[in-house]
Amino acid sequence: xxxxxxxxxxxxxxxxxxxxxxxxxxxxxxxxxxxxxxxxxxxxxxxxxxxxxxxxxxxxxxxxxxxxxxxxxxxxxxxxxxxxxxxxxxxxxxxxxxxxxxxxxxxxxxxxxxxxxxxxxxxxxxxxxxxxxxxxxxxxxxxxxxxxxxxxxxxxxxxxxxxxxxxxxxxxxxxxxxxxxxxxxxxxxxxxxxxxxxxxxxxxxxxxxxxxxxxxxxxxxxxxxxxxxxxxxxxxxxxxxxxxxxxxxxxxxxxxxxxxxxxxxxxxxxxxxxxxxxxxxxxxxxxxxxxxxxxxxxxxxxxxxxxxxxxxxxxxxxxxxxxxxxxxxxxxxxxxxxxxxxxxxxxxxxxxxxxxxxxxxxxxxxxxxxxxxxxxxxxxxxxxxxxxxxxxxxxxxxxxxxxxxx
Length: 406
Hints:
Layout: H1 8-27, H2 34-54, E1 56-60, E2 63-67, H3 69-72, H4 78-83, H5 86-106, H6 111-142, H7 147-158, H8 160-172, H9 174-177, H10 183-198, H11 209-226, H12 233-252, H13 276-291, H14 293-299, H15 303-314, H16 316-334, H17 350-374, H18 376-390
Antiparallel strand pairs: 1-2
């Protein structure tokens, strides 16, 4: 007769998890605004889930090519409203960077030293991604992989880097834009779209001006939040209602796409480069995020919830940069078993959607493996910073240095 499992093992495991979460909670300084970390974690995870839901790699004629369920089922566009959360990430980024820069200046840290500290955690995981995919692409090319398939895989794998480059550029410009009103970049986006879509004037590259101006809008809102200009609920409601109204009008009257992500084959993408409707939608998202701050602070008082958010923040760039790789590794590996529904088939019906939901835990497992393999490239910078901070803080505060800085 087989031995019965010890009923105390799951209980002990749960106790260990709760004890670990309690340690993280205790180690967190009381001055830390946990709502900021929660918003960052939700923004990163929203992008990850969004990509996993709307990105399909269809196997046809011995090659893989990209497709989207939004092509065949445009009524699924509200999914992009939920999971396209980049504006919230830029809002948090502007808030954190301007506060960090002001703190560094007060401590006598030079701009160069401050910028190196901010960019180290961004560039290390990016270098790891580039290195691995350079080796992988070379190996695939030498083994006869069709160029179309290789182009699809590399393009998707490296697509998160555009976000990283824009975020790094805005971080470097923080001292210049710290007091810039969001109305200025918003006006730039408006004029660019009028020239592109209203008057049909200007060169084709003009839209790429919005790549900086569009994301500068939520970034400068984050700076305004740091200055205390968005503390009132009235300001948050103005952003939410104003952004929602403008977005609805632009989609229904001006003819902008309803999807807040790019759709293969569509004439206009709201995200590549950002359009005015993507920016107004981002204003609504920022308003909602600001309205949720108090609720998030209360929720983050629970040790388990806070420990989960802290874990995501410790590896936010690793999770973001490798999530597309996790999708492709799963797709390529499973292709050995044939064309599987929700993974290699055309996303043209609800059956595909149901099958894709089943694959989400598999993608998460593959991402966890990527996280385990490459997280050290992101945390190396955090460790070096913690050593510097420890040298300037009393011994009694040292236990808090394991937490990520904001």
